[in-house]
């Protein structure tokens, strides 16, 4: 009986280029939101909203009376590596919502990274509010709000790679698998006039791509 022994050693070098095409992630709704109202030095008040259907809350932002009393809105998206891969490069983020003027048509809003988990039963509302206070924390972005008389008008704000908004978003998602966004009137202060809007249908859309990667495969048969 003849025995044949064959040893084949084959080294194959393959350059694999993963898709560099742009992709997007756009959840239908945030996971949670809350509107906080703060009068003078009192503790902010507001109730958590959990998204589970098409019924979405209408919030108010701005200074609403001379007390002074302010309102801020907060939105949270839970985002895992299944939604946006950890190796992805974020090209841009678009924030959009519908707004209706109450006593002002055109001004600006500030955006803040508020870090906290809105669903935490021990959520400290003072801390959450402070994260959206421009006198205590720097906003990660801002945007024009323009609401001509009558009805709700879509507001769209875009932030690109390299901006504070995108960098802050990436850090939060990588560390906590969530992004908690606060929104407030840019010029609110005790001596400012009363300026506020109603907002709803708050949306987040993230554009990203997976960078090319070179892989060397050493295959032996």
Keywords:
221 residues; mainly beta; eleven-stranded antiparallel sheet; 2 helices; globular; disordered N terminus
- Determine the strand fraction and express it as a percent band: 35-45%
From N to C, what is the helix and strand string?
EEEEEEEHEEHEE
Number of helical stretches of at least 4 residues? 2
Helix content: under 10%
Termini separation comes to 24 Å
Average per-residue pLDDT, rounded, comes to 89
Structural class comes to mainly beta
How many E strands? 11
Sheet with most strands: 11 strands, antiparallel
In the predicted model, the low-confidence regions spanning at least 5 consecutive residues are: 1-18
Q: What Rg is obtained from the alpha carbons, in whole angstroms?
A: 24 Å
Envelope shape: globular
Task: Walk me through this protein's architecture.
- It is a single chain.
- The protein is mainly beta.
- Helices cover 9% and strands 40% of the residues.
- It is built from 2 helices and 11 strands.
- Strands 1, 2, 3, 4, 5, 6, 7, 8, 9, 10 and 11 form an 11-stranded antiparallel beta sheet that branches.
- Strand 4 and strand 5 form a beta hairpin.
Helix and strand topology:
Elements: E1 23-25, E2 32-39, E3 49-50, E4 59-65, E5 69-78, E6 89-101, E7 106-113, H1 125-131, E8 141-146, E9 153-160, H2 164-176, E10 178-185, E11 195-209
Antiparallel strand pairs: 1-11, 2-3, 2-5, 4-5, 4-11, 5-10, 6-9, 6-11, 7-8, 7-10
